[in-house]
Amino acid sequence: MLLTTLIALIGLVVAIVFGKALARRPLPAHIEDDSVHDIMRGRLIVVLSLAGLVGLSFFSSLNAMSYETNALIPRIVRFWLTVALLWYTFHGSVLAYWLTISLFGLGIAVVIPTLVLALSEGNASVAAPLLLFVMVFFLSIMTITFLPSGRAFIRLQQTERRRAARRKKRISKNGKSIENATYPPSPPNLERDLRQEALDTVRNKLFIDPEWSVWDENRLSWAGHRLCQTFSVIGPYESNEMQVLRLSSTVPIIDDLKADPAKISDFLNLTNQVTVGDTLIWNRENGKVESRISCIIHEETFDWRITQFIDLAIIQLVLLEHRVDTFAEVFDGRVMEWSHPVSGERLVPDDMLNVVNDIYQPWGQEPSRFTSEDVFKCVEEWVKSTPLPLFTAGASDTGIAIEVATGPEDTALIQLHSDQTHPTLGSGLLVTIQVRLPESLGSDPLAFSSHLNRLECYEKTNSHQYGAWCSKDGFLAHSYFLPNDEVNEVTRSGITRDAAMGAVNRAIWVASIIDPDFNMGSQDPAMIAYWRTMDQEGFVADA
User: Fold this and answer.
1) What is the pLDDT of residue 222?
2) Mean pLDDT computed over 170-181
């Protein structure tokens, strides 16, 4: 009896220690903040419920062994099988979960007739432990089956177990382990390698985990949730007498489109009218819709330009994740969900995808941080000083309008507005271009805008690919939006002038497409000087 009691006490202590350890175990890192408290509460409840089952099994075995000396070994084996079953239930085994429910449910069904008989006979010594037995079993089963927080924790454990199994299978198949994965080392800084530095900067600023990314020397792909965002670097190549790189972000969205082509084109056009920085493209060759944004960088503009690009790229991904189901419904197509070659599907979104709700939308509720006459005066001074064929009537505290010659008799209208809001991001800076197509190109700006978007995506141009071409009010138009940010007013003046210069450069480019014989000379010294004098803070140094 003494030995039995000692073994029982040791088992009880072990159960308490392990239960405490399980209750304190950290949750997976990817659990969303608003779910943490519910999951932790559910975990505590599940641990207490399973501990109750272990305790009841323990005392039942102890009681049986006190008057059945020949049942020592079977009871010990039964007890530890129960512990193993509940252990695997806690760790997400679906088989163990249903065995637990079935066996303990069966135990309740077997005990109830005896309990009813004991109560009818008034035998309290028998009825009391049986009633405790039924209550503990029933409450524990209800907790892990129907209680929302407990069931949520059980589902999380089962999901994590399946992911781990898929991950192990893929690791075995591919012959590599992501636990030991490292990114390709950056080359020694004997000479600055902007290609590698660009991808390293993207990875670090977005906190991209190796578990959810693949990469090589020119490309980095990752899953924020369902969609795959690929950053790629092209170059170096010569542009405006400089060695530059093009850094792009591409997100495939929908394939297998079955909707009417006219409906697809109209919807893409409406969406491109309110774009932030990306362009939606329907590639009819492969039947896919994708989103793209890119910028040109060189050593003098690298540090601030890539920060601006990354901000627009993460907004690109967030808005696409929110809208992709709508796109699939309108296009009657399939969402192009991405599965990592090792980690599989990403079931819980990355925390970075909360950046719009947590940061940009609160900033957007404030007045535009670009509203300042000094900000737009900077643009006016540049327009009046450049030898390019530009004209402005002057700046106000909410914007400026610029006319650019696009032919012997035609002009493009560029407008920068700080008093117009984005439907999702609120206040900021809206940059638009409006061009009237000549009759020789027909009267279909929608078709021509799609053509220009494809050219900007797949051809080498001298402009950053911020925003999209679209058809609006019968005109060929282009727009993109810069949301409120943290930069100071001096830097914001430089960003505004950069946006104006980019719009002028794009207007010159589209003029060369419309009329190849009309060329203002994108190699103008003023333009070259502009790109060369942008410093690391994002403003143009005075000559």
Assistant:
1) 93
2) 42
